[in-house]
Amino acid sequence: MDILVVHLFNALLYASVLFLIAGGLSLIYGVMRIVNLAHGNLFAFGAFLTASAVGQWFAGSNSALLYLLLPIGAFGAAAIGAVLEPTLLRPFYRRPEEYQLLVTFGLMMILEDLIRFIWGPYPISATVLFSKMGSAKIGDFVYPRYNLLVIAVGGLAALFLWAFIYRTKFGVVLRATSQDMRRAAALGVNVNLVYVQAFTIGCFMAGLAGAIIVPSQSAVLGMGVDALVLSFIVVVTGGLGSLEGALVGALIVGTVREIGISMFPEIELAVLYLIAAIVLIFRPAGLFGKTA
Amino acid sequence: MSSVPLPFERRSPLKIVVWAVPIGALLILLPRIITPYQTILLTYGLAMAIAVLGFNLLLGYTGLLSFGHSAYFGVGAYTVAFMVKYLHVNSMELFVLGAIAASVLVTFLFGFVCVRYTKIFFSILTLALSQVLWSLAFKFFNVTGGTDGLRVPTPKLLGIVSGEKEDKILFLAHDYYYYVLAVFAICVAVMWLIVHSPFGKALQAIRDNEVRARFVGIQIRRYRLVAFLVSGVFTGIAGALWVPLNGLTTPDILYWPFSGEIVFMAVLGGFRNFTGPIVGAVVFNYLKTSAVGFTVYWQGLLGIVLVFLVMVLPTGIVGSLRLLWAHARRRLSQ
Asked: What is the ipTM of this complex?
């Protein structure tokens, strides 16, 4: 029984991180109709920034300060997003989507090497935050408390985002822009500003995912590319552009991964991709998506 | 495709001969002029050119952007590696036939699913399916060697020329180069016939206006599936030719950034041209090799080149040259 609880927590852990990454990807697609292939690299950037801040620059400081430093990766990724959208992406909204995919693919290559340039080729870890929190007892099992924090952050992020998009004025503007950009513009919405904000929030979420994952696992090169494909599965299953979809997709992928790792480790990834493909065959817009 | 498509080149047979003969002669003579190392680089470029030529039947002519062509390249390469490991075959002709058979099978299966969609969904679906193969190659260590990959020794060409006795470099730079060149020439000719056939015209009609094409009576899905099949098989052949050159196949060629490289090559040369993908593949190969030699940050450098290309030269090398040429001719005639 207790082992089931542990598995459940692990599934939720994956789901939280995946929701943060895929939710950002989906938000960006929902508002701007761009699939950002460099999104995974922003996740990696957040991880590297937090890891170096906690594990190197301020290593040995007061632990309260270190916990406060944790979200620095999210803000760093958001800053990059705020710069990238107006400079690199904006010229491409009117162009065919193969160019949009290509420019973000080029961006992915650049960001990947930018991370290598800044932090070098070796993994960086910030395990101090992970070990400081110790473990909780679940029956006969010990479970790291930090993982529970990650789950809580994921859940809170989902809640905040929902409230933000469905309960605030900015959310109304965002949804209006996403549904009909021209009409929103005609009604006086500053579409360019909404685009920058949406992209920045999306990048913030990816960076936050990187920042909270880094105390439990190191920041390594290539983590962005891997994360992107997993979050593709999430958004494809849930529906591109839908936040509910990203949440449900993240829960599905998290659960399947957790079951897969203990029961069919060899084909765990293949099963995930197949699920995505099967969902696409029967519901091309995903479980929660609306066909354009 | 929302942009107004440019018409493809229309050339008389005489003009084609005028272009093709000197280029063919140059490609035949080149190994005598350049170093073996340069020749091997060119061989890589020609093998990749076949893959990009196939890829462009989908992007340039049918209007479908596949982000999963690494799958078919990998199928070709891994088929050869499996034939070496489990069937102890070493004949290059059998390798190519095996790769064709395997890629027909996989492409049909994937294509059947993918051609139901267009635009971004097509791209993501092809990507997701290609990653199924990557994860299998990555995880089934006993069968595929995992990240270590599988070794492929130099094959026997036409049942007579074997690279086992002579120096491997010389074999690759001479005998194997001409072999790849011959296959390349056949593939270019076949692709030329395909895109200029009524079938090729139908694909372009589908790309330009799907609804009208359907009204004319074109069975869109079936045409797309055939295009997908041809495209995948070309890429599979390229994978088979590439493996002996590389000597090793690893899951990297199945991973999705490799698909991105194939797209990169097509855009670099210009996917609105017949010759664009060929030029793009050969140039990309040189570009990548020199970038790798020049800096450890070669990937970022290539990324900058890609972003620049997409922003400033969306018609690629060949498209831009043709624009320049047309411009110059207009100037001269005035």
From this structure: 0.84
